[in-house]
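We now fix the convention by which a protein and its fold are recorded. The integers have meaning only within a learned vocabulary of local backbone shapes. The record below shows the convention in full.
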Amino acid sequence: MTEIVANHHRRQAILADPLDLHRELFASFAPSDHPEYAGTYRGTPGTSLFDRRISAESQLEPGNDYEFCLPGEVVSRMAELLKNSRDLLADTNADDFGRLIALTYTFCKSAWPLTPIGVQD
């Protein structure tokens, strides 16, 4: 973190493509037979993550599971997140609190679970 704060070029590289940082931070957690889990978006063709769907139990509604965005949507949602992040950083009228709120909203909109599983209309 210190390097990221101190090094302008490192921050710009992360904003341009966060996958290298993701790989750096999470490579040691990826299974040895699936090193692409670190630094690869779900939905990336030619990888084991191409059609990888994920879900999680709701922390707010125990007993309900939610499916995160479909693999084919991840790349475009991350591109939107990066664009919005760059725009926030470039906005000279925003204060840090405003940027934090906007970034949180953008992240949740881009990455939050979208679809309840097993909920009937």
Summary: Residues 71-90 form the longest helix (20 residues). The helical segments are 2-6, 8-16, 19-26, 71-90, 96-111. The chain is about 50% helix and 5% strand.
